[in-house]
Amino acid sequence: MATPTPLREPTFLILTALAREPMHGYGIISDVAALSGGGLALRPGTLYGALDRLADEGLVERDREEVVEGRLRRYYRLTEAGRSVLTAETERLRRNVEAATQRLRAQPAGTRGTSRGPAARPILRPAGGPA
Q: In what order do the strands lie in the sheet with 23-24?
């Protein structure tokens, strides 16, 4: 199965979490939450399903296993293919941000916050109500 482009946000953030070093599941969950500013909270079932899919696609692989307090801790790492996909997606996103930033800066100062489309509709208030 091929990796979709553009990457979905959870996939992008999982690969990003693994870009620095191998990590275990809880570490990935914590890092994804931090990277997203708390906007994305992965559940273990979701994470491990994603890791299995990413491993099948050759983007991540198991790095090592260790037993901590009687529980198996499995570490995953980014493969070269995963690094390439993440690099390409990062570049795609950077170009999009750059294009949007240029458009926002190029907008004439007198038109900021106004619509160039159909005329804005007035706010209707009930008769006799506060203005």
A: 23-24, 71-78, 60-68
> What letter would DSSP give residue 129?
S
Angle 55-61-62 from CA coordinates, rounded to 5°: 125
Contacts of 27 (CB under 8 A, 6+ apart): 17
DSSP string over 69-83: TTEEEEEEEE-HHHH
Distance of CA 60 to the CA centre of its chain: 17
- Among 76, 92, 100, 98, CA closest to 3: 92
pLDDT tens, residue by residue, 15-37: 999 999 999 999 999 999 999 99
pTM: 0.77
